[in-house]
Amino acid sequence: MQRMSDQPTRWTRATVYPDMWTDPDDDPRNNEDSPEGELATLQDFLANYRITLRMKCEGLDAEQLARRSVPPSTMSLLGLLRHLAETERDWRNWISDGDPLPKLYGKRDADFDGAVAEQAVVDAAYRDLEREQAATDAALAAHPDLSERVGKDGISVRELLVHRIEEYARHCGHADLLRECIDGRVGQ
């Protein structure tokens, strides 16, 4: 556990705005063209939060990614990557009328509990997240009508997309604080 005197100094790579993660010209989320239509807008917001999460994790080693926030919390950046992979898989259960997909990591909270400081676990988490995001994106692409109701519970595609954005946005806030605790890096 870090003592107050062990806190990292706040810093940023940005030179234009010192409270930003990166300079606007270097930000991969900046898009000159505003998306057209509701579906494109929702997809753009989701893509930007996904990029933000990866940015918050970049440049860290396995130990840093697995570092827990504050006891008794099990939250870590690696745990967030694993949790979001698990969540993406679960969203496909909402779309489907079939049997639910099995959990990726096992019992409840295994996504966070199993986030240990091993490079193989880190590599697997990134692969799992990418695979599960692509699979959920593909499943939703079959339902371009945002008002369509899908799955056993009849959830609207719009609600599912907004819920995905909310989940990533909330966890990007966690990631921002976790990253600052690890090495002091701050920003948008």
From TrEMBL:
This is DUF664 domain-containing protein. It comes from Streptomyces fimbriatus. InterPro entries: DinB/YfiT-like, MST-like. Residues 1-12 have a biased composition (Polar residues). Residues 1-36 are annotated as: Disordered. SUPFAM superfamilies: DinB/YfiT-like putative metalloenzymes.
